[in-house]
Amino acid sequence: MLRAARLGIERGGVPLLQGLDLTLEAGAALILRGPNGIGKTSLLRVLAGLQPPMEGQLEAAPAAYAGHRDGVKPTLTVAENLFFWAETYGGSVPDALWEAFDLGRLRGRPGGALSAGQTRRLGLARLAVTGRRLLLLDEPTVSLDAASVARFADWLRAHLAGGGAAIVATHVALGLEAPELDLAPFRALAGARGGSDEAFL
Ligand SMILES: Nc1ncnc2c1ncn2[C@@H]1O[C@H](COP(=O)(O)OP(=O)(O)OP(=O)(O)O)[C@@H](O)[C@H]1O
């Protein structure tokens, strides 16, 4: 589902990571570890196709990327947000999703009137309506309470059991049986030269 060889990552023209080899098959997850600022978000952005790699080869299935911003449309209701995304991606809104993300009683509430945790639950529920099997998740549990973390972990396990795959940057243990990749040994050497980072915003 994803294969990268000798991947190098930069941000804003500054080299961050070098020499990364990654392979992810259907049904598998990988947890990214590393101190603040090492480049977890930047790596996920490259894997999602949001910015080009500095060097190396990358082949990846189309991914659903969940970054720090939830992308919730404030004037649309929770249900309208989900149906909008489902339509955009050509997917559907599974009935089980309302329970999985505890959104049933919030269906009619405008996105702009949700709490931080509720907004995050809606942002994560969006993953489920894209129909994309490869998930790239950047600190997905931020703002979630313990019950919501457990519910999300259950949903993610089911996604993997159904042939999905995920790469997750997280400082919170999700209880997944997944290998962890510490990015510290891949820190770019001082003086490594970056390429173009035109797509960076
Ligand atoms: N918009 C930006 N412009 C320039 N540099 C940036 C920008 N955003 C992040 N960086 C820098 O890129 C480096 C890697 O940041 P990144 O967000 O990928 O790290 P991270 O491992 O995800 O960190 P954290 O654990 O704090 O989320 C950091 O040194 C950061 O300061």
TrEMBL record:
SUPFAM superfamilies per the UniProt record, alphabetical: P-loop containing nucleoside triphosphate hydrolases
Output the SMART domains linked to this UniProt entry: AAA (SM00382)
Entry's Gene Ontology BP terms: cytochrome complex assembly
The record's section on Gene3D superfamilies has: P-loop containing nucleotide triphosphate hydrolases
Coiled-coil residues are none
* Keyword ATP-binding annotated: yes
Q: Which UniProt keywords apply?
A: ATP-binding, Cytochrome c-type biogenesis, Membrane, Nucleotide-binding, Translocase, Transport
Q: Which PROSITE patterns match?
A: ABC_TRANSPORTER_2
Q: Which residues form the ABC transporter domain?
A: 2-201
Please list the GO terms describing molecular function.
ATP binding; ATP hydrolysis activity; transmembrane transporter activity
Q: What is this protein called?
A: Heme exporter protein A
Q: What is the lineage of its organism?
A: Bacteria, Pseudomonadati, Pseudomonadota, Alphaproteobacteria, Rhodobacterales
